[in-house]
Every structure is written in structure tokens, then in C-alpha cells.
Amino acid sequence: MFTVAKEIEPMIASPARAAETGRNASSRRWAEDEEGDGARPFKTLTRGEASALRQKEPPLNPWRVIAVQAAVGVGVALLAALVTGKVEVGWSALYGAACVGVPGALMARGMTSRLSSMSPGASAVSFMLWEMVKIAVSIAMLALAPKLVQPLSWPALLVGLVLCMKVYWFALLWRGRS
User: What is the C-alpha R_g of the chain?
Assistant: First the structure.
């Protein structure tokens, strides 16, 4: 608070020097932040260092996550059908899992295409586009659920949906332990 008052005081006293004082003060603060925060300077990795880093922390394959989601969905559907004794409940749970898995597979397909990895800008735009497609397909599948799954059990559908969505969290934990 005290340093701000010392920097503002000359601006109030002399409006002509306000721009210069403000600019110099901000560049001084920038230099102090670079020196004082203890952050290490940016270092470009060599080819060998980048290779070692990739081996130490390999990227997570999105198709592996989709496969685990499919397995969880089938498991939840079988468990729901066995516990309730109703096949319709199992189909509802499986459809809930599909509401997560099918859009996820579409996004994984789009993001792993050659077009998506052309440049960082194209990759960012591709990610946003495929994320919107994923959301739209999920919403459409949920809207069509009462027509496609007869009789529909909403609680079973939601359990399948939520458990398959939680696979993303396990994938992050899984990657952290690899």
C-alpha cells in the first residue's frame, strides 16, 4: 500500500510526468518480479531431454480412456440388470454410458486426426469444435432417450452416465501414477 502511494503521489503532483512515471514504475515492478519471485528462467529442451521427458511421462491415449469407459458402461449395465432383475434397467444404464462414450469417441477421433495437429492454432480451434460436437451429441442422445429406450429408467441412465464420466478422473490419476 505504501509503495503504491509513493508511485501515485508524483502523478498527482505533475500530470505531465504521470505517463512517464507510470511506465517506469511498471517496468521496475516487472524487473523486480522477474528477479524476486525465485522462478527459474525458461529453458529450451534439447532433442535428448525432450525424448527423456516423453519416456518419463508418456501421453495418455484417448482411445484407452474410451475403451475403459465402454468396459465400465457394460459392467454397470450388467450389474444393474442383475441387481434389479430387469433387463430394461440394464439397457437404460448402458444407454447412459453410451451418452458419454459415443460423444467421447467422436471427439477422440476428431482430435487425433492429422488436420487437428497441423499447428497450435488449428489444434486449439479443433479442440473447441470437437468439444461443441461432443456436447451437442450428448444432449441429442439424452433428448432421444425416452424414444429409443423403452421403458426408460432415468435413475439407471444417470448412474451409467455419471460412472462413465468419472472414468476421466481415474484416467488423470492413472496418468499421474504411470
Answer: 27
Helix axis angle for 154-165 and 62-84, nearest 10°, is 150
* Pairwise CA distance, residues 139 & 129, whole Å: 16
pLDDT digit string, tens, across residues 81-115? 999 999 999 999 999 999 999 999 999 999 888 88
Q: Which residues, at least 6 apart from 10, have a Cβ–Cβ distance to it below 8 Å?
A: 17, 18, 21
Helix 62-84 crosses helix 167-177 at what angle (to 10 degrees)?
130
At residue 163, the pLDDT reads 96
Q: Whole-angstrom Cα distance, residue 118 to residue 161? A: 33
Structural domain boundaries in the chain: 2-36, 61-177
